[in-house]
Write a structure and sequence with these properties.
Order of helices and strands: HHEEHHHH
Largest sheet: 2 strands, antiparallel
Strand order of the largest sheet: 1-2
Strand content: 5-15%
Radius of gyration: 20 Å
Structural class: mainly alpha
Distance between the termini: 39 Å
Number of helices: 6
Helix content: 55-70%
Number of strands: 2
Oligomer: single chain
């Protein structure tokens, strides 16, 4: 004894629409999260000339027909990698930015912005809600 569902045009269309809506909502959460993460990383990045902050951006790539969104720092420039990975003392402008801003300025700015996205922006919760309700 059980339930038997036969495929019909109406059911197939409804299921496809649900899948499309869920995928769109998840992509929106992913995209919004990436842009928010880039914004926060810019606020966390040390400043000298502003080039490092300006180099933090979101790059969209398409892979197997699905849009993937991720944050990129200066496309791997040595300066961005050095400032992200190494230990150093903040310069005058970075220290001023650190005192006046909402976020701590300094190394690991991309990693810390990802942690902020998960913890404070509640990325996973928003993604789960997109799947459950089709909302952001």
């Amino acid at each position: 004894m059980g339930i038997r569902i036969t495929r019909g045009a109406g059911l197939d269309i409804r299921l496809e629409k649900i899948a499309q809506k869920t995928t769109r909502q998840l992509r929106r959460v992913h995209r919004d999260g990436a842009y928010k993460m880039a914004e926060v990383a810019q606020q966390m990045a040390p400043v000298l000339s502003g080039d490092l902050e300006m180099s933090i951006h979101v790059q969209e790539t398409v892979e197997s027909g699905q849009r993937k969104v991720f944050t990129v720092v200066a496309d791997g420039t040595p300066y961005a990698i050095y400032m992200h990975e190494n230990v150093y003392e903040l310069g005058t402008l970075s220290a001023l930015k650190d005192q006046s801003g909402q976020f701590r300025v300094g190394r690991k700015f991309i990693d810390r912005s990802a942690q902020w996205l998960i913890r404070d922006w509640k990325f996973y919760e928003k993604a789960r809600n997109a799947v459950k309700t089709g909302k952001k």
